[in-house]
Amino acid sequence: MKEAQLTRKILESLEEMEIIDCHEHLPPEAVRVSRKVDVFTLFSHYTRGDLARAGMSEKDINSLTDREIPLEKRWRIFEPFWERIRWTSYARAALLAAKKFYGVDDITVHTYQKLSERMQAANKPGLYEKVLRQNCRIKTVLTQCGSTHTGSGWLKPVMPMTYSMENPEDLLQPPFAPGCSCCTLDDYLKACHDYVIRVKKEGAVGLKLLCQPFGQPDRKGAASVFKKIISGKRKEVDQTGRWPTYTLAHELTSYVTDQLVTLAGKEKLVVAVHTGYWGDFRRLDPLHLIPLLQRHGEVRFDIYHCGYPWVRETLMLGKGFSNVWLNFCWTHIISQKFATDALKEAIELLPVNKVLAFGGDYRDPVEKVYGHLVMAREDVARVLAGSILAGRMNLEQALEVARQWFFNNPVSLYRLNFPEK
Ligand SMILES: [Zn+2]
User: What is the pTM (predicted TM-score) of this model?
Assistant: First the structure.
Protein backbone atom coordinates (compact mmCIF):
# COMPACT_ATOMS: atom_id res chain seq x y z
CA MET A 1 0.00 0.00 0.00
CA LYS A 2 1.27 3.48 -0.80
CA GLU A 3 2.20 5.78 2.08
CA ALA A 4 -0.64 8.27 1.55
CA GLN A 5 -3.21 5.48 1.35
CA LEU A 6 -1.88 3.81 4.47
CA THR A 7 -1.82 7.11 6.38
CA ARG A 8 -5.47 7.67 5.35
CA LYS A 9 -6.42 4.19 6.57
CA ILE A 10 -4.73 4.77 9.94
CA LEU A 11 -6.37 8.19 10.23
CA GLU A 12 -9.80 6.63 9.76
CA SER A 13 -9.13 4.29 12.69
CA LEU A 14 -7.77 7.13 14.83
CA GLU A 15 -10.97 9.11 14.22
CA GLU A 16 -12.90 6.28 15.89
CA MET A 17 -10.59 6.14 18.90
CA GLU A 18 -11.43 7.56 22.32
CA ILE A 19 -9.01 10.23 23.48
CA ILE A 20 -7.73 11.52 26.78
CA ASP A 21 -6.99 15.23 26.34
CA CYS A 22 -3.85 15.52 28.46
CA HIS A 23 -3.73 19.29 28.90
CA GLU A 24 -6.07 22.28 28.50
CA HIS A 25 -6.79 25.57 30.23
CA LEU A 26 -10.53 25.36 29.55
CA PRO A 27 -12.68 27.17 32.11
CA PRO A 28 -16.09 25.77 33.09
CA GLU A 29 -18.42 25.84 30.09
CA ALA A 30 -20.65 28.40 31.86
CA VAL A 31 -17.78 30.90 31.67
CA ARG A 32 -17.30 30.45 27.94
CA VAL A 33 -21.00 30.60 27.02
CA SER A 34 -21.56 33.71 29.15
CA ARG A 35 -19.15 35.65 26.92
CA LYS A 36 -19.89 37.22 23.57
CA VAL A 37 -17.95 35.47 20.81
CA ASP A 38 -17.05 36.20 17.20
CA VAL A 39 -14.33 35.35 14.67
CA PHE A 40 -11.73 36.92 16.95
CA THR A 41 -12.43 34.40 19.71
CA LEU A 42 -10.54 32.02 17.42
CA PHE A 43 -7.62 34.45 17.51
CA SER A 44 -7.62 35.16 21.23
CA HIS A 45 -4.93 32.72 22.22
CA TYR A 46 -1.58 31.60 20.76
CA THR A 47 -2.19 33.32 17.43
CA ARG A 48 -1.81 36.62 19.32
CA GLY A 49 1.91 35.82 19.47
CA ASP A 50 2.03 35.19 15.72
CA LEU A 51 0.19 38.49 15.05
CA ALA A 52 2.68 40.36 17.24
CA ARG A 53 5.64 38.74 15.50
CA ALA A 54 4.06 39.67 12.14
CA GLY A 55 4.20 43.32 13.17
CA MET A 56 0.79 44.04 14.71
CA SER A 57 0.91 46.43 17.67
CA GLU A 58 -0.22 45.30 21.11
CA LYS A 59 -2.94 47.96 21.07
CA ASP A 60 -4.33 46.58 17.79
CA ILE A 61 -4.13 43.00 19.03
CA ASN A 62 -6.08 43.94 22.16
CA SER A 63 -8.64 45.82 20.08
CA LEU A 64 -9.58 42.62 18.22
CA THR A 65 -11.49 41.32 21.25
CA ASP A 66 -12.94 44.73 22.20
CA ARG A 67 -16.57 44.25 21.26
CA GLU A 68 -17.29 47.97 21.66
CA ILE A 69 -15.50 48.38 18.32
CA PRO A 70 -17.63 47.37 15.29
CA LEU A 71 -16.70 43.96 13.86
CA GLU A 72 -16.08 45.46 10.38
CA LYS A 73 -13.51 47.87 11.78
CA ARG A 74 -11.73 45.11 13.70
CA TRP A 75 -11.61 42.98 10.56
CA ARG A 76 -9.94 45.81 8.61
CA ILE A 77 -7.24 46.08 11.29
CA PHE A 78 -6.75 42.30 11.33
CA GLU A 79 -6.84 41.33 7.65
CA PRO A 80 -3.30 42.34 6.51
CA PHE A 81 -1.76 40.54 9.48
CA TRP A 82 -3.98 37.48 8.98
CA GLU A 83 -2.48 37.13 5.51
CA ARG A 84 0.96 37.03 7.12
CA ILE A 85 0.17 34.37 9.74
CA ARG A 86 -2.30 32.12 7.92
CA TRP A 87 0.31 29.43 7.18
CA THR A 88 1.43 28.86 10.79
CA SER A 89 0.29 25.77 12.68
CA TYR A 90 -1.51 28.00 15.20
CA ALA A 91 -3.58 29.47 12.36
CA ARG A 92 -4.33 26.08 10.86
CA ALA A 93 -6.15 24.98 14.02
CA ALA A 94 -8.44 28.02 13.64
CA LEU A 95 -9.16 27.24 9.98
CA LEU A 96 -9.95 23.59 10.77
CA ALA A 97 -12.30 24.62 13.58
CA ALA A 98 -14.09 27.23 11.45
CA LYS A 99 -14.70 24.70 8.70
CA LYS A 100 -15.80 21.86 10.97
CA PHE A 101 -18.21 23.70 13.23
CA TYR A 102 -19.28 26.73 11.22
CA GLY A 103 -19.13 25.54 7.63
CA VAL A 104 -16.70 28.14 6.25
CA ASP A 105 -13.90 26.90 4.01
CA ASP A 106 -11.66 29.85 4.76
CA ILE A 107 -11.59 32.90 7.03
CA THR A 108 -11.81 35.87 4.66
CA VAL A 109 -13.51 39.21 4.15
CA HIS A 110 -16.40 37.22 2.63
CA THR A 111 -16.87 34.79 5.53
CA TYR A 112 -15.93 36.52 8.79
CA GLN A 113 -19.42 37.93 9.42
CA LYS A 114 -21.21 34.66 8.73
CA LEU A 115 -18.64 32.83 10.88
CA SER A 116 -19.14 35.29 13.76
CA GLU A 117 -22.93 34.94 13.64
CA ARG A 118 -22.73 31.14 13.63
CA MET A 119 -20.24 31.12 16.50
CA GLN A 120 -22.48 33.32 18.63
CA ALA A 121 -25.55 31.18 17.84
CA ALA A 122 -23.70 28.01 18.92
CA ASN A 123 -22.32 29.60 22.10
CA LYS A 124 -24.77 28.01 24.52
CA PRO A 125 -24.87 25.20 27.08
CA GLY A 126 -23.92 21.91 25.46
CA LEU A 127 -21.05 23.47 23.47
CA TYR A 128 -18.34 21.47 25.29
CA GLU A 129 -20.31 18.24 24.91
CA LYS A 130 -20.69 18.89 21.17
CA VAL A 131 -17.11 19.93 20.48
CA LEU A 132 -15.14 17.75 22.85
CA ARG A 133 -17.18 14.60 23.28
CA GLN A 134 -19.19 14.25 20.07
CA ASN A 135 -16.65 15.59 17.59
CA CYS A 136 -13.34 14.84 19.29
CA ARG A 137 -14.38 11.63 21.11
CA ILE A 138 -12.61 12.95 24.20
CA LYS A 139 -13.43 10.91 27.28
CA THR A 140 -11.87 13.26 29.78
CA VAL A 141 -9.93 16.52 29.79
CA LEU A 142 -7.16 17.45 32.21
CA THR A 143 -7.67 21.17 32.60
CA GLN A 144 -5.77 23.93 34.36
CA CYS A 145 -8.17 26.80 34.94
CA GLY A 146 -6.84 27.86 38.33
CA SER A 147 -9.72 26.19 40.16
CA THR A 148 -10.91 22.70 41.00
CA HIS A 149 -14.45 23.79 40.11
CA THR A 150 -14.45 22.83 36.45
CA GLY A 151 -18.21 22.56 36.07
CA SER A 152 -18.12 18.95 34.91
CA GLY A 153 -16.93 15.57 36.19
CA TRP A 154 -15.12 14.83 32.94
CA LEU A 155 -13.03 18.00 33.18
CA LYS A 156 -10.42 16.94 35.73
CA PRO A 157 -8.42 19.68 37.40
CA VAL A 158 -4.65 20.00 37.48
CA MET A 159 -3.61 22.79 39.84
CA PRO A 160 -0.52 24.99 40.15
CA MET A 161 2.07 23.49 42.48
CA THR A 162 3.82 26.71 43.45
CA TYR A 163 2.88 30.37 43.30
CA SER A 164 5.09 33.46 43.10
CA MET A 165 7.37 33.87 46.12
CA GLU A 166 8.97 37.10 44.95
CA ASN A 167 7.04 39.69 46.96
CA PRO A 168 6.22 40.11 50.67
CA GLU A 169 2.47 39.76 50.06
CA ASP A 170 3.00 36.49 48.12
CA LEU A 171 4.37 34.97 51.32
CA LEU A 172 2.47 36.82 54.05
CA GLN A 173 -0.99 36.19 52.55
CA PRO A 174 -0.55 33.39 50.02
CA PRO A 175 -3.22 33.60 47.30
CA PHE A 176 -3.82 29.83 47.44
CA ALA A 177 -4.73 29.93 51.15
CA PRO A 178 -7.37 32.64 51.62
CA GLY A 179 -7.53 33.96 55.18
CA CYS A 180 -4.16 32.47 56.09
CA SER A 181 -1.28 34.66 57.23
CA CYS A 182 2.26 33.34 57.33
CA CYS A 183 5.11 34.84 59.35
CA THR A 184 7.68 32.07 59.00
CA LEU A 185 8.87 29.56 56.43
CA ASP A 186 7.15 26.83 58.43
CA ASP A 187 3.83 28.72 58.34
CA TYR A 188 4.22 28.99 54.57
CA LEU A 189 5.03 25.30 54.17
CA LYS A 190 1.99 24.39 56.30
CA ALA A 191 -0.22 26.56 54.04
CA CYS A 192 1.24 24.81 50.96
CA HIS A 193 0.63 21.40 52.50
CA ASP A 194 -2.98 22.22 53.38
CA TYR A 195 -3.54 23.56 49.85
CA VAL A 196 -2.31 20.33 48.23
CA ILE A 197 -4.46 18.17 50.51
CA ARG A 198 -7.50 20.38 49.78
CA VAL A 199 -7.16 20.38 45.98
CA LYS A 200 -6.63 16.64 45.94
CA LYS A 201 -9.82 16.19 47.95
CA GLU A 202 -11.57 18.45 45.43
CA GLY A 203 -10.55 16.20 42.53
CA ALA A 204 -7.14 17.40 41.35
CA VAL A 205 -5.11 14.66 39.66
CA GLY A 206 -1.84 16.56 39.27
CA LEU A 207 0.17 19.63 40.23
CA LYS A 208 1.74 21.87 37.59
CA LEU A 209 5.23 23.23 37.86
CA LEU A 210 7.21 25.59 35.66
CA CYS A 211 10.64 24.25 34.77
CA GLN A 212 13.42 26.47 36.13
CA PRO A 213 16.90 26.05 37.56
CA PHE A 214 16.41 24.09 40.77
CA GLY A 215 19.19 24.20 43.36
CA GLN A 216 19.81 21.63 46.08
CA PRO A 217 17.12 22.06 48.74
CA ASP A 218 18.63 24.09 51.58
CA ARG A 219 16.33 24.83 54.49
CA LYS A 220 18.63 27.43 56.07
CA GLY A 221 19.08 29.30 52.80
CA ALA A 222 15.34 29.18 52.16
CA ALA A 223 14.50 30.54 55.63
CA SER A 224 16.97 33.37 55.14
CA VAL A 225 15.49 34.35 51.75
CA PHE A 226 11.98 34.11 53.23
CA LYS A 227 12.95 36.63 55.94
CA LYS A 228 14.56 38.99 53.44
CA ILE A 229 11.55 38.97 51.17
CA ILE A 230 8.94 39.56 53.89
CA SER A 231 11.01 42.41 55.31
CA GLY A 232 11.14 44.05 51.89
CA LYS A 233 14.91 43.56 51.44
CA ARG A 234 14.58 42.04 48.02
CA LYS A 235 17.56 44.00 46.68
CA GLU A 236 19.87 42.16 49.03
CA VAL A 237 18.65 38.91 47.56
CA ASP A 238 19.33 40.30 44.09
CA GLN A 239 23.10 40.65 44.63
CA THR A 240 23.64 37.32 42.90
CA GLY A 241 23.68 38.77 39.37
CA ARG A 242 22.01 35.55 38.19
CA TRP A 243 18.83 37.21 36.94
CA PRO A 244 17.02 36.41 34.68
CA THR A 245 17.99 32.75 34.69
CA TYR A 246 17.49 32.53 38.42
CA THR A 247 14.62 34.19 40.26
CA LEU A 248 15.11 36.49 43.20
CA ALA A 249 13.67 33.83 45.48
CA HIS A 250 15.82 31.03 44.06
CA GLU A 251 16.79 29.25 47.32
CA LEU A 252 13.25 29.58 48.68
CA THR A 253 11.62 28.32 45.47
CA SER A 254 14.01 25.38 45.25
CA TYR A 255 13.34 24.30 48.82
CA VAL A 256 9.54 24.75 48.73
CA THR A 257 9.31 22.98 45.36
CA ASP A 258 11.33 20.06 46.65
CA GLN A 259 9.05 19.71 49.69
CA LEU A 260 5.96 19.85 47.49
CA VAL A 261 7.27 17.31 45.01
CA THR A 262 7.76 14.91 47.94
CA LEU A 263 4.20 15.61 49.06
CA ALA A 264 2.84 15.09 45.52
CA GLY A 265 4.49 11.67 45.50
CA LYS A 266 2.93 10.73 48.84
CA GLU A 267 -0.50 11.91 47.70
CA LYS A 268 -0.20 10.09 44.36
CA LEU A 269 -0.45 13.31 42.37
CA VAL A 270 1.40 13.60 39.07
CA VAL A 271 3.88 16.48 38.76
CA ALA A 272 3.23 18.10 35.37
CA VAL A 273 6.04 20.34 34.15
CA HIS A 274 6.00 23.03 31.50
CA THR A 275 9.34 22.88 29.65
CA GLY A 276 10.75 25.05 26.86
CA TYR A 277 9.00 27.69 24.72
CA TRP A 278 7.54 30.73 26.48
CA GLY A 279 8.81 34.29 26.80
CA ASP A 280 12.45 34.28 27.86
CA PHE A 281 12.71 30.53 27.40
CA ARG A 282 16.30 30.35 28.65
CA ARG A 283 14.80 29.78 32.10
CA LEU A 284 12.74 26.84 30.85
CA ASP A 285 15.49 24.50 29.69
CA PRO A 286 14.21 20.98 30.46
CA LEU A 287 17.64 19.91 31.68
CA HIS A 288 17.07 22.02 34.81
CA LEU A 289 14.77 19.21 35.95
CA ILE A 290 17.45 16.56 36.32
CA PRO A 291 18.23 17.18 40.02
CA LEU A 292 14.49 16.91 40.87
CA LEU A 293 14.12 13.73 38.79
CA GLN A 294 17.11 12.22 40.55
CA ARG A 295 15.98 13.10 44.06
CA HIS A 296 12.38 11.95 43.53
CA GLY A 297 12.53 8.61 41.81
CA GLU A 298 9.14 7.63 43.26
CA VAL A 299 7.28 10.66 41.86
CA ARG A 300 5.69 10.62 38.40
CA PHE A 301 6.70 13.54 36.17
CA ASP A 302 4.63 14.45 33.11
CA ILE A 303 6.95 16.55 30.93
CA TYR A 304 5.06 18.94 28.65
CA HIS A 305 5.73 20.27 25.15
CA CYS A 306 8.84 18.19 24.35
CA GLY A 307 10.84 21.09 25.79
CA TYR A 308 10.71 22.87 22.43
CA PRO A 309 13.30 23.81 21.14
CA TRP A 310 15.29 21.38 23.36
CA VAL A 311 13.53 18.40 21.80
CA ARG A 312 16.39 15.88 21.86
CA GLU A 313 17.26 16.83 25.42
CA THR A 314 13.66 16.21 26.49
CA LEU A 315 13.44 12.88 24.67
CA MET A 316 16.62 11.99 26.51
CA LEU A 317 14.90 12.69 29.86
CA GLY A 318 12.41 10.00 28.88
CA LYS A 319 15.19 7.67 27.87
CA GLY A 320 17.22 8.25 31.03
CA PHE A 321 14.68 8.46 33.86
CA SER A 322 12.05 5.86 34.75
CA ASN A 323 9.84 8.48 36.45
CA VAL A 324 9.39 10.56 33.26
CA TRP A 325 6.49 10.52 30.80
CA LEU A 326 6.56 12.73 27.69
CA ASN A 327 3.43 14.70 26.92
CA PHE A 328 2.98 16.03 23.36
CA CYS A 329 0.43 18.64 24.45
CA TRP A 330 0.74 21.90 22.46
CA THR A 331 3.39 20.41 20.17
CA HIS A 332 1.33 19.77 17.03
CA ILE A 333 0.30 23.46 16.83
CA ILE A 334 3.84 24.68 17.47
CA SER A 335 4.94 22.81 14.35
CA GLN A 336 3.65 19.58 12.86
CA LYS A 337 7.08 18.96 11.35
CA PHE A 338 8.78 19.06 14.75
CA ALA A 339 6.06 16.98 16.45
CA THR A 340 6.20 14.33 13.72
CA ASP A 341 10.00 14.13 13.87
CA ALA A 342 9.92 13.88 17.67
CA LEU A 343 7.29 11.10 17.61
CA LYS A 344 9.29 9.27 14.96
CA GLU A 345 12.32 9.36 17.22
CA ALA A 346 10.23 8.52 20.31
CA ILE A 347 9.06 5.24 18.75
CA GLU A 348 12.65 4.08 18.48
CA LEU A 349 13.81 5.60 21.73
CA LEU A 350 11.11 5.08 24.35
CA PRO A 351 8.94 2.33 25.75
CA VAL A 352 5.48 2.63 24.22
CA ASN A 353 3.88 3.34 27.63
CA LYS A 354 5.77 6.62 28.11
CA VAL A 355 4.24 8.88 25.45
CA LEU A 356 1.06 10.96 25.78
CA ALA A 357 0.03 12.03 22.30
CA PHE A 358 -2.37 14.92 22.74
CA GLY A 359 -3.34 17.98 24.75
CA GLY A 360 -4.93 20.98 23.04
CA ASP A 361 -3.65 23.64 25.47
CA TYR A 362 -6.50 26.11 24.81
CA ARG A 363 -8.54 28.40 27.03
CA ASP A 364 -11.44 30.25 25.35
CA PRO A 365 -11.49 28.85 21.80
CA VAL A 366 -12.66 25.33 22.69
CA GLU A 367 -13.40 24.69 19.01
CA LYS A 368 -9.67 24.77 18.30
CA VAL A 369 -9.16 21.68 20.45
CA TYR A 370 -10.73 19.89 17.49
CA GLY A 371 -8.38 21.63 15.03
CA HIS A 372 -5.38 20.67 17.12
CA LEU A 373 -6.58 17.08 17.47
CA VAL A 374 -6.92 16.72 13.69
CA MET A 375 -3.28 17.80 13.40
CA ALA A 376 -2.17 15.44 16.19
CA ARG A 377 -3.92 12.52 14.49
CA GLU A 378 -2.23 13.40 11.19
CA ASP A 379 1.18 13.43 12.86
CA VAL A 380 0.64 10.11 14.65
CA ALA A 381 -0.78 8.52 11.47
CA ARG A 382 2.23 9.65 9.41
CA VAL A 383 4.68 8.29 11.96
CA LEU A 384 2.91 4.95 12.25
CA ALA A 385 2.57 4.60 8.47
CA GLY A 386 6.32 5.15 8.21
CA SER A 387 6.97 2.41 10.76
CA ILE A 388 4.72 -0.02 8.89
CA LEU A 389 6.34 0.73 5.53
CA ALA A 390 9.77 0.28 7.10
CA GLY A 391 8.66 -3.24 8.05
CA ARG A 392 8.86 -2.53 11.78
CA MET A 393 5.22 -3.29 12.66
CA ASN A 394 1.92 -4.29 11.10
CA LEU A 395 -1.27 -2.23 10.99
CA GLU A 396 -2.77 -3.88 14.04
CA GLN A 397 0.37 -3.25 16.09
CA ALA A 398 0.50 0.37 14.90
CA LEU A 399 -3.07 0.99 16.04
CA GLU A 400 -2.21 -0.54 19.41
CA VAL A 401 0.64 2.00 19.74
CA ALA A 402 -1.84 4.79 18.96
CA ARG A 403 -4.31 3.49 21.57
CA GLN A 404 -1.57 3.54 24.19
CA TRP A 405 -0.44 7.05 23.27
CA PHE A 406 -3.91 8.60 23.01
CA PHE A 407 -5.71 6.76 25.80
CA ASN A 408 -4.10 4.05 27.92
CA ASN A 409 -0.94 5.91 28.93
CA PRO A 410 -2.67 8.99 30.38
CA VAL A 411 -5.25 6.75 32.07
CA SER A 412 -2.51 4.81 33.77
CA LEU A 413 -0.20 7.77 34.52
CA TYR A 414 -3.01 9.84 36.10
CA ARG A 415 -4.78 6.82 37.65
CA LEU A 416 -8.02 7.82 35.94
CA ASN A 417 -9.88 4.63 36.77
CA PHE A 418 -11.21 3.89 33.30
CA PRO A 419 -10.93 0.43 31.88
CA GLU A 420 -8.02 0.39 29.41
CA LYS A 421 -8.78 -0.07 25.71
ZN1 LIG B 1 -0.68 25.06 29.01
Answer: 0.95
